[in-house]
Amino acid sequence: MKKIHIIHGWTYTTDAWGACVAALREKGYEPVMLNVPGLTEASSEVWTLEKYVAWLKTKIENERDITLIGHSNGGRIAIAFAAKYPEMIGRLVLIDAAGIVHREFLLETKRAIFGAIAKAGRFFTASPFLRKVLYRIIGARDYERAPENMRKTMKNLIAHDLAPMLVNIAAPTLIIWGEKDTATPVSDARIMHARIRSSELYTIPDAQHSPHASHPVLVSNKIADWI
Fold this sequence. Notes:
Layout: E1 2-7, H1 18-26, E2 29-34, H2 49-60, E3 66-71, H3 73-84, E4 89-95, H4 105-119, H5 121-125, H6 128-137, H7 141-145, H8 148-158, E5 173-178, H9 186-195, E6 199-204, H10 211-214, H11 216-226
Parallel strand pairs: 1-2, 1-3, 3-4, 4-5, 5-6
Helix pairs in contact: 1-11, 2-3, 4-8
């Protein structure tokens, strides 16, 4: 039975993967969910993208011909790993992956606000209502819910633009994307498809940021057929 390693996104539970994982098992695969430190695995550390790449290496370095799936922030880690260690990945699946830095005004404003919040952390801690309102205004629910070490981790991660790394990915890559994704827009998928040499782009018209949760059978069928 062939293993498929999965790196979930910025979440504290992998429940949303249940139906997709079950469907892959029915097709004869062995999905292996990797618990990400600071999210589904306890950690009080502040993480960087480089540290996550090193963590992933310890998890899969004894495997061969690896099929790796990364969703959202997990896709960010998967991209960085596949670019640094192209010889270790046999196949790569990116589902609404993060990692493309946008220079649009709103996103630049979000980064500036993240920086301001980090500097004024005590003030916002003393004002939970103000903190909650501000996070909602900038659409930063993940940041709002995160403990302090993971807020710093998120700030570290979103500083990286992975677009230049994409040309270093050698593995055949399947890019699955929800066309209604507002967190990582479908334009990101097109950038990845254009820059990853051996890639296929598959979009789902009525899906948003987590098609593995909203369309588990469709996603699992596409992955199995592609493999």
